[in-house]
Amino acid sequence: MKTRMIFVGPPGAGKGSQAKLISQALNIPHISTGDMFRSHIKGQTPLGIE
User: How many of the other CB atoms lie within 10 Å of CB of 22?
Assistant: First the structure.
C-alpha cells in the first residue's frame, strides 16, 4: 500500500516544512496543492481564473 499523508492547519503552522522533512526522510514525493493552485493562477488557466 502506498503511503499518503495530508497535513492540515492554519497558515504559518509549519505544514509545508514538516511535509518537506518527512518526504525527504521517507523518500516520497512532496506535493503542494498551494503551489499547484498558484501555478494555475499565474498561468491564467481556467482553474486559476475561477
Answer: 14
